[in-house]
Amino acid sequence: MFEGTVSATLPKAEFYGELAMQARSLFAGESNRIANAANLSALLFNSMPDLNWAGFYFLTEGELVVGPFQGKPACVRIAIGRGVCGRAAETRETQVVPDVHAFPGHIACDAASRSEIVIPLQTAAGELIGVLDIDSPKLARFDNADRQGLEAVARVFVETIRD
C-alpha cells in the first residue's frame, strides 16, 4: 500500500520534486492510463493545499471527456477551445488562470472554484492525450512555480502510459 506524503511546507521546487518522485513510485510497473490518472488525481488532491478539484480530461473523438478525478462531479464533455480546459487543449499551452470569473467562457462545474491551472498532456511526438485540470477555491492559487512543477509531474504521467 502506498503511504507517501509530501509536506506542503517545502519550497515549491522541492515540493514538486517530491511529488514527481511519489508519482513515479505510484506508477511503477503500471502503464494503464486510467489507473495512473486515478492515482495521480488522488495524490495531487491530497498533497496540494487549497484545492477543490484535481483530475483529467482525455481527448476522445475530438472532444475532452472527463476521466479520473477528485472533487465534486464534473462536466462530462468539453469542446476543444471552450473554457480553460478547451483552451489548453487547443493551444497546447498550460493555462494559469488567477480568477476564473475573469476568463471568457469559463465553464463552472463547481461554483466554489476561483482559480485554475490546466496542463495539456502530450506525447513526445506531440500527440495530444488530454489535459490535467486543477481548481482552487482560492484566488490566484497557482503561479509560475506551480506551472513548472505540475508540467514536470504531468510529463511523468505521460511517460508511463502505453494504452
TrEMBL record:
GO molecular function: L-methionine-(R)-S-oxide reductase activity
One GO cellular component term: cytosol
Domain GAF: 54-155
Highest taxon of source: Bacteria
The family this protein is said to belong to: Belongs to the free Met sulfoxide reductase family.
UniProt cross-references to PANTHER family, sorted A to Z: FREE METHIONINE-R-SULFOXIDE REDUCTASE, GAF/PUTATIVE CYTOSKELETAL PROTEIN
Protein name, as recorded: GAF sensor protein
